């Protein structure tokens, strides 16, 4: 009976967890989660991620204990952590899900593989999403995704053999509390989502049965999107629910609605939702196939277009970045979104796209520092989706439609009464509706009456929209028009392009 360590990473659950189920069938099991210094020091990391992870670990610890096993939470580099554990509890197997993550986790996996070879431990990995490893060609990928999602989710094991009581005592003595990781687990957010399987399943249920009816129409607005979107992204990012579980629950709900002609809105919304579950894996597949996109433009013809190295930024570039980060650009919807993100860890897709578009085009900033900052703000940071989307919204793939969002038009379309803006930018609370998207156009008397003097209480726009928009459009289309950019675009499309062009353009 081989002893196994199940290594939990971004799969913090017991349901639909193949490595756990398979380990439990074969012999005694210990669960392991490691806070890795390299991950904690990465530019994408934030203590807010730890708060969510801690919720998940607390629940996972209880679940494994109730099933007969244990979750060990360690702090240290992976091979060393495994070394120590192996000395304490000699195990023959390491079981985990495949991970599509940052370069540091990829390099760590190679070190873990080398450690396993040295110690004669079998490392058995299982896929957890629709990401295919290795993938020779994108042709037929959607079919493979459907086949991957088709089997029903695995139920959690009903019992798991763990170490003996004596062994358990030795193992548990080294557990690392979260306060050791960051000194404190203070969560600076309000209204932040909680982690854990229980919450994940409640969020899924309330979306499919109560909140999701107007998803298709409401997903783009920051106000309605708050409840109309599924809000499952942090749970999918940390694996407190599997994408297959979400896929099956959505399919079942669509089937149950089919008989009732009065449920057209629900069905349209859920059909549109279903597609996005595939996009989740489609975007992650890009990072799996070309890990370099964490650092480099998809389309290398765009190299050098914007200054990536922050040490070489001009004071103006730094000032533009700081204004964007601080929610003080003078564009109310951009500022409201940044401040909302700061406090809640979530914003809807359209607003994310607008934030990056504004940074990349209006402020002409490189996607890398922009992406790193947003990663620290998003509770749902998922490297494959994030880096692909940040590059796409910055126009450097060469295969997607260039979308330069006007922050003023978005404010008028998505928040016409300025409710969202006023909530997050209280300086604009008394600005009349007609000026809330462009407060700098208020006459001086109106500014006085609204208690909002532009340049004093609220900044003037950091750049002029029309001028910045025209300059950015010219630069990006000039870059796209070169033969090198077109050649590169063909390569990018062959390697990464969705074979449904409509989906890719989005
Ligand atoms: C610049 C930028 C960065 C992003 N970074 C992340 C990220 O780090 N992590 C992340 O999970 N999503 C990211 N997204 C995609 C998307 O905005 C979020 O998945 C979504 O807003 C999360 O909220 P939700 O779960 O309520 O989404 P829903 O609309 O309810 O969608 C359900 C799920 O489908 C997937 N999904 C939805 N839209 C997309 C999309 N356009 N691309 C890929 N998958 C999608 C997500 O897994 C999401 O949880 C990013 C988008 C942009 C424009």
Architecture overview:
The protein has 506 residues and is mainly alpha-helical. The protein has 3 domains: 1-128, 3-Layer(aba) Sandwich (Rossmann fold); 197-289, Serine Threonine Protein Phosphatase 5, Tetratricopeptide repeat (Alpha Horseshoe); 294-505, DNA Cyclobutane Dipyrimidine Photolyase, subunit A, domain 3. Helices cover 54% and strands 5% of the residues. It has 25 helices and 5 strands. A 5-stranded parallel β-sheet has the order 3-2-1-4-5, sandwiched between helices. β1 (4-8), α1 (18-26) and β2 (29-35) form a beta-alpha-beta unit. α4 runs parallel beside α5. The chain is globular. The chain starts with a strand and ends with a helix. The model has no long low-confidence stretch (mean pLDDT 95). Flavin-adenine dinucleotide is lined by residues 219, 229-233, 236-237, 276-277, 279-280, 283, 348-349, 352-353, 356, 378, 380-382, 385-386, 389-390, 393.
Tags for this model:
single chain; 506 residues; mainly alpha; Rossmann fold; Serine Threonine Protein Phosphatase 5, Tetratricopeptide repeat; DNA Cyclobutane Dipyrimidine Photolyase, subunit A, domain 3; 3 domains; 25 helices; 54% helix; globular; binds flavin-adenine dinucleotide
Secondary-structure topology with pairs:
Elements: E1 4-8, H1 18-26, E2 29-35, H2 37-40, H3 47-67, E3 71-75, H4 78-88, E4 93-97, H5 103-119, E5 122-126, H6 141-149, H7 165-172, H8 178-182, H9 197-211, H10 215-218, H11 225-228, H12 233-238, H13 243-257, H14 264-289, H15 315-325, H16 332-344, H17 349-362, H18 367-377, H19 383-394, H20 407-414, H21 419-424, H22 444-450, H23 465-480, H24 483-496, H25 501-505
Parallel strand pairs: 1-2, 1-4, 2-3, 4-5
Bound molecules: flavin-adenine dinucleotide.
Flavin-adenine dinucleotide (FAD) binds next to helix 12, helix 14, helix 17 and helix 19.
């Amino acid at each position: 009976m081989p002893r196994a360590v199940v290594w939990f990473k971004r799969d913090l659950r017991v349901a639909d967890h193949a490595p756990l189920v398979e380990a439990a069938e074969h012999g005694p099991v210990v669960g392991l989660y490691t806070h890795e210094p390299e991950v904690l020091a990465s530019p994408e990391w934030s203590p807010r991620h730890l708060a969510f992870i801690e919720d998940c670990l607390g629940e996972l610890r209880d679940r494994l204990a109730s099933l007969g096993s244990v979750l060990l939470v360690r702090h240290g580099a992976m091979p060393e952590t495994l070394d120590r554990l192996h000395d304490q509890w000699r195990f023959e197997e390491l079981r985990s899900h495949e991970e599509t993550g940052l370069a540091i986790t990829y390099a760590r996996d190679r070190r873990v593989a080398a450690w396993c070879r040295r110690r004669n431990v079998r490392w058995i990995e299982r896929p957890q999403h629709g990401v295919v490893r290795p993938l020779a060609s994108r042709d037929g990928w959607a079919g493979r995704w459907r086949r991957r999602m088709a089997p029903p989710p695995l139920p959690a094991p009903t019992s798991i053999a763990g170490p003996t009581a004596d062994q358990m005592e030795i193992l548990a003595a080294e557990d690392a509390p979260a306060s050791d990781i960051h000194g404190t687990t203070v969560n600076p957010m309000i209204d932040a989502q909680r982690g854990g399987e229980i919450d994940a399943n409640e969020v899924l249920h309330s979306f499919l049965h109560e909140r999701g009816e107007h998803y298709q129409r409401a997903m783009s607005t920051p106000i309605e999107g708050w409840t109309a979107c599924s809000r499952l992204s942090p749970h999918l990012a940390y694996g407190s629910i599997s994408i297959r579980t979400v896929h099956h629950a959505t399919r079942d709900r669509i089937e149950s609605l089919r008989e009732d002609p009065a449920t057209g809105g629900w069905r349209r919304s859920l059909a549109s939702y279903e597609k996005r579950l595939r996009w989740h894996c489609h975007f992650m597949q890009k990072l799996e196939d070309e890990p370099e996109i964490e650092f480099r433009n998809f389309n290398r013809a765009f190299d050098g277009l914007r200054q990536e190295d922050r040490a070489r930024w001009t004071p103006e570039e730094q000032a533009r970045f700081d204004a964007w980060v601080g929610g003080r650009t003078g564009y109310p919807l951009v500022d409201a979104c940044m401040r909302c993100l700061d406090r809640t860890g979530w914003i809807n897709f359209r607003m994310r796209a607008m934030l990056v578009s504004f940074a990349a085009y209006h402020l002409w900033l490189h996607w890398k520092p922009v992406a790193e900052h947003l990663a620290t703000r998003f509770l749902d940071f998922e490297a494959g989706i994030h880096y692909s989307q940040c590059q796409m919204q910055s126009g450097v793939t060469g295969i997607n439609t260039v979308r330069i969002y006007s922050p003023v038009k978005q404010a008028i379309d998505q928040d016409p009464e300025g409710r969202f803006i006023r909530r997050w930018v209280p300086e604009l609370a008394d600005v009349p509706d007609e000026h809330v998207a462009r407060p700098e156009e208020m006459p001086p008397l109106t500014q006085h009456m609204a208690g909002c003097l532009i340049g004093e209480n609220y900044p003037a726009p950091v750049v002029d929209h029309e001028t910045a928009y025209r300059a950015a459009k010219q630069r990006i289309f000039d870059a796209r028009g070169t033969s090198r950019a077109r050649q590169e675009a063909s390569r990018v499309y062959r390697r990464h392009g969705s074979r449904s062009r409509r989906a890719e353009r989005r």
